[in-house]
Design brief:
Elements: E1 2-18, E2 29-41, H1 50-68, E3 72-77, H2 88-104, E4 108-111, E5 116-124, E6 131-135, H3 157-162
Parallel strand pairs: 2-3, 3-4
Antiparallel strand pairs: 1-2, 1-5, 1-6
Helix pairs in contact: 1-2
Length: about 170
């Protein structure tokens, strides 16, 4: 799972057009004030362990929210963070579970519709911790055997730790 978080004064969206994968929604416009917008993408590798991905992602987001003193988020499905998307049904299930996991941790959460073209407007706060990105691996850090989505070369923590380039 990939998450791009932006601490915002406000965030508003409006669903403009359905795709063939669009979920049924009653609300096509919404927003939130003083929140963290979580542009979220579920990846193919997340299908291995969706429950673990949700818990690790929620835990990581909670650390970031505590640092900036925010307890309000908008989860915004954003497929553009990876070239290796999960199956749409899996992505929707993971996104819903992610929203529930954040809510269980005391966060006020809204989620933008899945499978819709949307326009949005926001004003980022611009402080040093206002923007962050997360890549949540389907396995523990030391057991990760994910492959690069571009060249399919295995990405292993041990390889990175042994490299003099880092």
């Amino acid at each position: 799972m990939r998450v791009l978080g932006i601490h915002a004064d406000f965030f508003r969206y409006r669903a403009t057009k359905r795709t063939r994968l669009a979920e049924e929604v009653a609300v096509t416009e919404d927003g939130m004030e003083d929140c963290c917008v979580l542009f979220t993408c579920v990846e193919r590798g997340d299908e291995r362990e969706p429950a673990g991905i949700v818990e690790r992602a929620a835990d990581e987001v909670m650390v970031r929210l505590a640092r900036i003193g925010v307890d309000r988020v908008v989860v915004y499905p954003y497929a553009h963070l990876t070239p290796a998307l999960s199956a749409p049904a899996v992505a929707l299930a993971v996104l819903n579970a992610f929203v529930a996991a954040l809510a269980e941790r005391g966060v006020a959460v809204k989620r933008a519709p899945f499978g819709w073209y949307k326009e949005f407007e926001m004003k980022g706060k611009g402080h040093p911790l206002a923007d962050f990105s997360l890549g949540v691996c389907p396995h523990s850090l030391h057991d990760c055997d994910a492959a690069c989505p571009f060249c399919h070369h295995p990405l292993r923590t041990a390889d990175l730790e042994a490299s003099d380039e880092f």
